[in-house]
Amino acid sequence: MSAVRLPKGVSVGDAARSALQRQPTQPEGSKRLSPEDLRARMVKESLNVGLPNDNSAQLSIDTESQMTLPVMEILLYDKNPRQTINDQWDAIKESIRSTKRLNSPLVVTRRPGEKKYMVGKGGNTRLAILQELFAETSDQDFQYTVVTYTPWKSE
Fold first, then answer.
1. What is the CATH number of the domain that holds 143?
2. Is the CB of residue 102 less than 8 Å from the CB of residue 138?
3. How confident is the model at residue 101 (pLDDT cuts 50, 70, 90)?
């Protein structure tokens, strides 16, 4: 990098003050924005930034951890031994409806090669009720739930 020489008799401070005092040139025909208009434009542009892509399906999690998942993206355990509807369905549903959450997180896992999580240690009834409540009400309180992820071990 080469050094820039100042004209004789001009100090570095004088050159800096001169540079700060210079008004930026505006393109011909453009309107100068007030500080308020500039701020409003910047805020508007910042709100147009898209959300990052959901790449949670690509994550490799090998330890137990907590996360928040959309209830409609969690699968019921397809080999659930319970073949009838839980006798306490209505009471459980009313409890979840009144608190708008589960008292304890669902435990989920993911089979090797699968993209979606599924119930891992019971909780099919609670998940089905959460999904039903969200489908019935579209209430955002039912859209997501906190879960405990446990790595896949076996069926």
1. 3.90.1530.10
2. no
3. confident
Domain membership of residue 77 as a residue range: 61-149
**DSSP summary character for residue 116:** S
Decide if 87 is inside a domain: yes
Q: Single out the residue of 97, 110, 121, 99 nearest to residue 69, CA to CA.
A: 110
- Which single residue is written with the structure tokens 């004789």? 8
Give 9-78 as a 3 state SS string: CCCHHHHHHHHHHCCCCCCCCCCCCCHHHHHHHHHHHHHCCCCCCCCHHHCCCCCCEEEEEEHHHEECCC
pTM reported for the whole predicted model = 0.58
- What number is the average pLDDT over the span 85-91? 86
Counted domains in the chain: 1
Angle at 73 between CA 150 and CA 68, to 5 degrees: 55
